Amino acid sequence: MDRVLGGARDRQPAPGHAHGPGRQDPGGAARPRRPRGRGAADHGVRTVEPEQALAYRLVGHHLHRRTDALTAIGACGIQDSPPGWAAVALHARSHEDRPTGRSVVQVNAMRNAPHLVPRADVAVFTLAAIPPDDELAAVVGRLVATELADAGYGIREALDRVGDAARDALADGPLGRDELHQAFRERLPDALLAWCPGCESHHLRSGLWRTLGRLGITEMPAKATWSLLDPPVTADPVQARAELARRFLRCFGPATHGELATWTQTSTRHARRLIADLGDAVEQVLLAGRKRWVLADETAVLDDPPTARGVRLLGGFDPYVAQPDRATLVPDRALARRMFPSVGRPGVLLHDGRLVGLWRARKAGSVLQVRLEALDGADLPDVQEEADAVARLRGCDEAQLRPA
Predict the structure, then answer these.
(1) Which helix (H) or strand (E) holds 314?
(2) φ, ψ for residue 368 (rounded to 5)?
(3) How many CB atoms lie within 10 A of CB 167?
(4) Which range marks the domain in which residue 171 is found?
(5) Which residue stretches does the UniProt record annotate as biased composition, category Low complexity (predicted)?
(6) Which of 60, 267, 395, 398 is the most buried (most CB within 10 A)?
(7) Residue 118 — φ and ψ, nearest 5°?
(8) Residue-wise pLDDT tens digits, 352-389
(9) Can you tell me the distance from the alpha carbon of 315 to that of 89, in angstroms, rounded to the nearest whole number?
(10) Residue 269 domain-assigned?
């Protein structure tokens, strides 16, 4: 189904947010203005149309127009699972490659998944989403919380034990996954370890060791490799929590508390606090009949977003595709089931902001074979240049396009 996106005006950078989704319009003709949201009769809360919301989110993700790499990464972080796909997501948002040096770090962040984030913003995407101790089950997972309770451990106690073990194990440098698990086996009681039938060995429960990144203890200097976060997090926690809520709303607003909780994997109560603490900086709107939150100083962009131009090939776990409000992105349930299967997600083809196709790829020697499928009879644009770029990022020389 085509989701028509567009508008006329770009966002202006918010003061003090150099790595937030600062908006730039490198120059262009004035574009047709979109109709503004209809007024709502619900105590003055106005209605936002789905097309407006999607166009606004495109701008938040810098998918309407490419920007510099650090700004693109800082919008909401870029997930790098499956491994290597962060490069594809960054290409869709930026005309630059991943910055060299230490300005960007990979860390287990939202949903405990590996993410690229600006090193200066580590606290925003990790510690800011950690709720009080009595709500930590949302972070480590309900099953892990139950297993810990059965073993006589509180969640905070277990995380403290694991954190101490990680600091000791990684004191001399990075460790790969197997070496790190061996270090945990040597340093932790059996009650914190789970039996893995496939490996025929005990491993620290993933809900515990992956949370180390979110606690500001570890980073990932290479694939399946962990080291101590350097330098340690020193950011003000109040400012970090406020910035997390702002970044989320710029990329995924209008949004609910539950969507923020889902995106970060935190408790709904903590998500409510994060948004409530913004005070008058947020306001409510109606989208699809539900009250949602937006940043008050972004309503002009929501009303009149800039027009998206060009072709983008997004992976199935791209932050925009994986947005927590799937119903607005893909209202057709049959299409949603195809886009979000339990395994083997297809990629998404955007043309001028419209969702016009799905794609899958596989390597055949030095060629990336890309199968394209048009949605609802849409005319597919020329995607060869974009597909070739994706092929190079996936370790191939070129792309070969095929119909699905």
Answers:
(1) strand 311-314
(2) -95, 110
(3) 13
(4) 127-228
(5) 21-30
(6) 60
(7) -60, 135
(8) 999 999 999 999 999 999 999 999 888 899 999 999 99
(9) 7
(10) no
